[in-house]
Each structure stands twice: as C-alpha cells, then as structure tokens.
Design a protein that fits this description.
The structure holds two protein chains of two kinds. Chain A contains seven helices and 13 strands. In chain A, a hairpin with a 2-residue loop joins strand 9 and strand 10. Chain B is α+β, with helices and mostly antiparallel strands. In chain B, a hairpin with a 2-residue loop joins strand 9 and strand 10. In chain B, helix 9 runs antiparallel to helix 10. The chains are: A alpha/beta, B alpha+beta. At the A-B interface, helix 5 of A face helix 1 of B.
C-alpha cells in the first residue's frame, strides 16, 4: 500500500495577531506549522501503512523552510519526503499548485492512495485536493472521517452537511480528510533524531521537467488583487433591564428604523 | 565551559516538552485527584522512546546520556509531577541493571525496561531500615540453584505496577553492609506479594507499597552482581537516583513558579496587578534565582557522570539543594496566591503538598548533608 500525502506549511494561526491599524495579520515572528488537517492526513497514512504495509511519501510545495514541516512528518514516521520548491512556483493559486503536485506524483510513479487535508487553515479554499484528483484522473472523495480497505476497495465515510455518507471506492483514489478521522501522534525521540539526518530532496521546474507557463503566477487562473479584512463594525449597544423592558426597547428601536 | 545543550540534547528536550505539555499537563490535577496510577502516561513515555534514554541501543535504549535523561525528566515533572516520579523511580531499576547486569540479565530485563514494555522498581527500605541500609533484615538463603527470600520492604515506589524489581537482601547476617546482595525479582513469582499502599500527604497516584517475600524462590542467576556486594549496587544506584529526585524537584519548582507568575500578573489589587508590587516581585526573583542554581547543580552532576568523572558529591548537593529550593518555592507560590493558593482550585496547593516528598525520599536532607560532609572532610 503506497500512500502519497500532500501537506502545506502554514502560519500557526493560534499565534497570529491582528495589526489594529492596518487590519492585516502580523506574520513576523509567527512560527510555521504543518496545516492541522494535513497532520491528520499524515497520521491516517501511517495507520494504513501499519495495517497494510507499504510506504508513505510526503510532498509539499513551498519555500525552502517548508522542509521543516516535511522533516516533522519523517519524525512522525513517514518514509520519504520531497519538497517542491522553485522561484517559478511563487504566486501559485490552487490550480497551479495542484498541477505542480500532480506532476510530482506522476514522476513518483505508481501509488494506491493520495491523502490531503480537507483544507489549509490559511487560504481555506479546500480546492487543491479535489483539483489534484482531477489532474491525476482518479476517483476522489472529500471530507473523509473513516476508512477501511479490503480487496483493493475502500469503504469510506464522509462528512456531509446533514450526516454521513458511506461510499465504496476502488483504489487508487484521492481522499481529503477531516479532523475526526484520527488524533495525530507526536514525533518520537527516535523519529526526530532520524529526521534530523534525513535528506529531503528538492524538486524544481527542471527536476519535474514541466512547463514554466503552467506553474506559479503564470499558471494561475486567479490572481489576488487585494487582501483586506472588513472594517470592524461599530455602534453596538447593549440593552439592559428586565426581559419585558428589553423587548420593548428592541422592538421600538427596530420599528423606528423601519426594520419591522 | 559550555552551558548549552548539544543540538541533539536540545532537540530531544524540546520534543519531550511538546509531548509532556500536550499529553500530561492538562490531566495532571486529575491524576492527583483520582489517585490512580497514570498508566496511559507511562505508555506514552514508552511510545515516544522516553523510557530508555541512557540505555545503549543494543538493549533497546536511545543511547544518549544522563544530561539528556535529566532535562527530559525535568520536562515530565513540570507537566506532571507524578509521572516524573514514576519515571525517576523506574531509573532506579534500569540503572543497576545497566551498571551491574550480565549480558543475559540485560537481555532479559534491561531491554523491556528500556523499551518501556515493562516498569521497574527498586527496593531497599524496610520498616526498621531506612537511612541505615546496613540494617536490612530481608534475607536470601542459597538453596542449590536458587535463593529463598524472606522479609518485608516498605514504601516501595511503583510497587504493584512494576514488573521487575531490584531488591536488596542479606546473604550473610553476620557481615553488616558486606553481607548484602542485590537480586532481580519478577512480579508473579510465587511467595512474592504486595502489602498495603501508604496513604500519603500527596502523590496519591504514585504507589508506595509493601513488598512481602514469604519463602520466595528465585533462580540463582537472578543475583545481580556479586554475592555480598549489594551495598555497592545500592549506593551507586542512589547516586544516580539523586540526580533524578533533584531534577524532579526542579521541575516541580518550575511549575510552581510558572503558576505564581501567571497569577501575579492577572490578580488585580489596589487597581494594579499584584506583580507590580515589589513584595511580590522580590519573591518571584528569589524563586527564579534559586531554581536556576538548583538546576545547574543537578545538570553539573549529570554532566560529570556522563564524562566519567566524580559526580557523587555534586549529586548529593544537587538533591539536597533542589529539594529545599522546591519547598521554599512552593511556600512562596502559595503565599503569592493568597487564599486561592490554599484552595484546590489552583495547582499550587498540590505542589505545596508534593514538594515535601523530595526532602525525604532517596536520602533525607540530613543524609545528603552527611554524604557531602564526608566528601568535604576527606
């Protein structure tokens, strides 16, 4: 059972603070972490490997420091990790990112399963996983919270708005996973010591043998023109008093403003 | 001189810190309240390779040193004092096997301990033999290929939960300390049972039980080291045990200081956080200073040990100083919390009860002073 996991290094949002003047995130000095859902993806890959054998290869597209995130997955127990990093990859939207990941996976050759986190906590698009499935031309199931494999087929449970959906999928396929699927392990001491010495290859445009026009900003169908946070709302007023008084005042105010 | 941990030591410490803070810290109060052996924590220590840090890789350990073991012990104790105490007591079984075990004994007993598959305990203390190790009465009589053990040990940490016990018994009643031998006894051996668990002031989840030997027959190959040389096994084990207890006390003191700082910054009196008052600041400054000094003493002992240099005197100083610092620190931590510090609502109440243990176990402060005085007067 050969499994490929795609991860993203993201700023640790629990540490992010907002600059109240400019209304933007203060990114300086914020530690980077593995996107939490991607950690669930790594954990599930390790559990499937422990059950069915095979190996786990983790890939990530990002700047050179994303190697640290990959190293952490080696410490957790992944067999190999590859970083996709090139100046030409900069500014990639989800389309260019999934294309680059797809090309790397094709270069790796055969696999039984690709796992991604359901979305990244910085962009929150939830697009890369499904797009990658399309580009690899394999079945895909998003929001998986449970999986078991038998005779080349997987039974998966996916989270949908009003419950769970049970599906049977033929391998190979791609799934994106939710937090419910597992509780990711820590890295062990042996794991971190091994990961420290592990060589993590870096693949760029040349190594992947791909067209520069399809990656990075050039290969992006969308472009971010501006990022802004909506201005904080003002004028909140607390109504106090007994329930009757509060209702009276609220209804009176709403009528005055012609809302009701 | 170099006070920095090596890159690997720091990597291990940081990894241990993350594990302990996430897995143990949130449940530490519950462990104390429930009073049940935190087996899940011990399984986690094994899963993440924390149990056999100084044991060679050949015997399932990590192959690192006692400085690394100490800083990991410190992180465990900061997060959960009980788990730290179990981790420390476990080393009292691992270490004599490392030092004195023959290849077969290491293979059979050290390997599962280093991997964390089994838990260990070490037993000297008896109802009438504490500080005076030479006066133990448990006896071991050679009978063909076996020894027959009879006697009772008390206050034994990890007793009942541990699978492997290193115990001291008399093989020659006439010879005092030179008539003592060390043995390895497995849980489940006929004639070996557990007595009452001490109802203690704190550390209720840490078992301190009696070991009862009634015509307990063990194979002669379970003699650890030589017949009549058990006193040496005990003394050398206790030397390392002092590093373990000392770093446990430092971890506890650090946890108490952290709570005191947090409280002093958030508690408002006279329209200011109490941390802005000099009376509180001076207490915090003294706490931090003494903790730093105690930590350096312990780590120096571990450092000397790792270099094969004499460390026994520094280990005794470290254990003495760190345990007394822990008492002073928890006292101030409760004082800073005022009435809330006396309430179980805040963890400093527990730390206050727990700290006292360190001045008593594995050589009281008075025994440490005697040990140190012997070195000073030599």
């Amino acid at each position: 059972m050969d499994i490929i996991v795609c991860i993203k290094q993201v700023p640790d949002t629990t540490e992010v603070k907002i600059d109240r003047k400019t209304n933007t995130l203060i990114r300086e000095g914020i530690p980077n972490v593995i996107n939490p859902f991607d950690k669930n993806a790594v954990e599930e890959a390790l559990r499937l490997r422990e059950k069915y054998g095979g190996k786990v290869i983790v890939i990530s597209m990002g700047p050179p420091h994303a190697q640290e995130a990959l190293r952490e997955t080696i410490a957790m127990g992944a067999d190999e990790a590859i970083l996709l990093s090139d100046k030409a990859f900069a500014g990639a939207d989800t389309l260019a990112t999934s294309y680059t990941l797809a090309m790397a996976i094709k270069k790796l050759g055969s696999f039984d399963l690709v796992i991604c986190g359901k979305q990244a906590i910085d962009g929150d698009t939830a697009q890369v996983g499904p797009e990658l499935g399309e580009m690899l031309d394999i079945s895909q199931v998003a929001y998986v919270c449970k999986i078991s494999i038998e005779d080349g087929k997987a039974i998966v449970e996916r989270v949908i708005e009003d419950g769970y959906e049970l599906m049977e999928v033929t391998l190979p396929f791609l799934m994106t996973v939710t937090k419910e699927i597992n509780e990711p392990r820590h890295a062990s001491l042996r794991g971190v010591l091994k990961a420290k010495k592990k060589e993590i290859p870096i693949w760029g445009v040349k190594e992947l043998g791909i067209n520069e026009d399809k990656v990075g900003l050039n290969g992006s169908a969308t472009q971010v023109i501006k990022i802004f946070s909506p201005p904080p709302r003002e004028g909140t007023r607390m109504i106090e008093g007994t329930i009757e008084e509060m209702i009276q005042e609220l209804v009176g105010n709403l009528k005055k403003r012609k809302v009701i | 001189m170099n006070f920095n941990l090596t890159e690997d030591q720091e990597l291990i410490r940081k990894t241990a810190q993350e594990i302990c803070q996430e897995e143990f810290a949130p449940k530490a109060n519950e462990v104390d309240e429930k009073g049940e052996f935190p087996i899940e924590n011990i399984q986690k220590l094994a899963q993440y390779d924390l149990m056999g840090i100084p044991v060679s890789e050949e015997y399932g350990g990590l192959g690192y040193d006692f400085v690394t073991w100490s800083v990991v012990g410190e992180e465990i104790s900061i997060a959960c004092t009980t788990t730290g105490a179990i981790f420390g007591a476990n080393m009292l079984c691992i270490y004599p096997l490392m030092l004195f075990g023959n290849d077969d004994q290491k293979e059979k007993y050290l390997t599962p301990l280093a991997k964390g598959e089994k838990i260990g305990a070490f037993a000297i203390t008896e109802p009438n033999a504490g500080s005076d190790v030479g006066s133990i009465r448990t006896d071991a009589v050679k009978d063909g290929d076996s020894y027959i053990l009879n006697g009772t040990k008390v206050f034994i940490t990890n007793a009942g939960e541990a699978d492997i016990y290193v115990i001291l018994a008399k093989t020659n009643k006439e010879r005092g300390a030179r008539g003592i031998s060390a043995f390895i006894v497995e849980k489940g051996t006929p004639g070996f049972t557990f007595g009452k668990n001490e109802n203690k002031m704190a550390f209720k989840a840490l078992p301190n039980r009696e070991l009862i030997f009634e015509d307990c027959k063990i194979p002669a190959e379970n003699l650890l080291y030589k017949d009549g040389r058990g006193f040496r096994v005990a003394m050398q084990t206790l030397d390392v045990g002092r590093i373990g207890m000392g770093i446990g006390a430092v971890g506890l003191a650090k946890a108490a200081l952290k709570e005191a700082i947090k409280y002093a910054k958030s508690r408002i009196q006279f329209e200011k956080p109490i941390a802005s008052f000099q009376a509180i600041q001076f207490m915090l400054a003294d706490m931090a200073t003494e903790i730093e000094a105690a930590r350096l003493l312990i780590l120096k002992a571990a450092f000397l040990k790792d270099r094969g240099q004499k460390f026994e005197d520094i280990a005794a100083m470290g254990k003495l100083y760190a345990s007394e610092v822990a008492m002073r620190v928890v006292n101030k931590a409760v004082q800073i919390h005022g009435g809330y510090g006396y309430s179980k609502e805040y963890p400093v109440e527990r730390y206050f009860r727990e700290a006292k243990l360190f001045e008593i176990v594995e050589g009281t402060s008075e025994i440490q002073r005697s040990v140190i005085a012997n070195y000073v007067l030599k």
